[in-house]
Amino acid sequence: MKISIINGPNLNLTGKREPDIYGTKSLDNYLQLLATAYPDVEFTFFQSNIEGSIVDEIQRAGFDADGIVINAGAYSHYSLAIADALRAVPAPAVEVHLSNVYCREPERHHSAIAPACKGVIAGFGLDSYRLAIEALDSMHNA
Ligand code: DQA
Question: Burial level of 107, CB count in 10 A (0-12/13-18/19+)?
């Protein structure tokens, strides 16, 4: 099974930025550990702070991967371009967030990309990524 993990703006600073909200651990390190925990899954990892680069990666990975895990950061809340890209490719996507966006400011309660995803996992910190992989794996084997 091939899973593409796509991260948007500022996720590269996880562990350093707003640790009270996003924790103190690095996302890169966590994803490396995750890859070793799922030796049968072929992962690709991508992070960009640029909306168009995220669209390019969805277009590239979305015809090859069996699933996409996407944390589009702030773009989640308003990017129709990322939502359209997710709809354009056959790979099912799971939207993830480290924080529980529904406990935060109202502008974080709306997701522009959720309607283009199979489901949403938010609020479990880095473990949100593992839960998304489990969800894709179950769908893949159903
Ligand atoms: C986030 C939540 C977004 O609202 C925020 O803009 C982020 C991170 C999360 O993982 O909790 O950058 O996607």
Answer: exposed
Whole-number Cα distances in Å, 51 to 7, 57, 58, 127, 131 = 11, 10, 11, 25, 25
Tens-digit pLDDT profile for residues 91-101: 999 999 999 99
**75 a catalytic residue:** no
Pick the CATH number of 2-140 from 1.10.10.410, 3.30.70.1350, 3.40.50.9100, 3.40.50.2300: 3.40.50.9100
Whether ligand 1 lies within 6 angstroms of the CB of 67 is answered as: no
Residue 103 near ligand 1, beta carbon < 6 Å? no
For 105-134, the pLDDT digits (tens) are: 999 999 999 999 999 999 999 999 999 999
> What residue segments make up the domains of the chain, in order of their start?
2-140
Q: What are phi and psi of 83, to 5 degrees?
A: -60, -45
